[in-house]
Amino acid sequence: MSIRQGILDAVRTRLGRIRKANGYRTDIGANVLEWQTAPVPSADLPAISFRDAENEIAEWTMRERDNRVAVVIEAFGRDVPPSTVRQYVEDIYAAIAVDETWGGLALVTEPVSDEIEFRTAEEGVGRATVRILIEYQTAKWEF
Fold first, then answer.
1. Which residue, 63, 71, 99, 111, shows the most beta carbons closer than 10 Å to its own?
2. Peptide bond into 81 cis (omega under 30)
3. Are 18 and 92 in contact (CB under 8 A)?
4. Average pLDDT for residues 106-121, to the nearest whole number?
5. How far apart are CA 15 and CA 30, in angstroms?
6. What are the pLDDT digits (tens) for 65-112?
7. Torsion over CA of 100, 22, 9 and 7, rounded to 10 degrees?
8. In the chain, count of helices (H) and strands (E)?
9. Are strands 32-34 and 47-60 parallel, antiparallel or unpaired?
């Protein structure tokens, strides 16, 4: 397994722990999706989705390279107020802060941005988006 895949597996596991029973403010970790491209059915909300968007090679030497993978995390809720969607953002950041090296696989995780938005009133879906960069090191031609 590649280091990148190991990191993304750790992201999935960590996001799945976002439950009130684990001390978080929401239960968005009840339904964790990877690379969700279709709208999440209302019956499956709240939910959280993540994807690795881009991997930038920051530096490299003859033997190794530093990678910075951009990860986009989106949390969805139906018929929720803006304050709940803000709690989604807080919970995501709190989950990342547990260990920003993802079990020693990464060097560091950096916050990039976050935003909240709401779809039309008929849909009633609120969404929080958090973007992060995870920096990790590999052998020059490994993933």
1. 71
2. no
3. yes
4. 90
5. 9
6. 899 999 999 999 998 999 999 999 999 999 999 999 999 999 999 999
7. 0
8. 2, 5
9. parallel
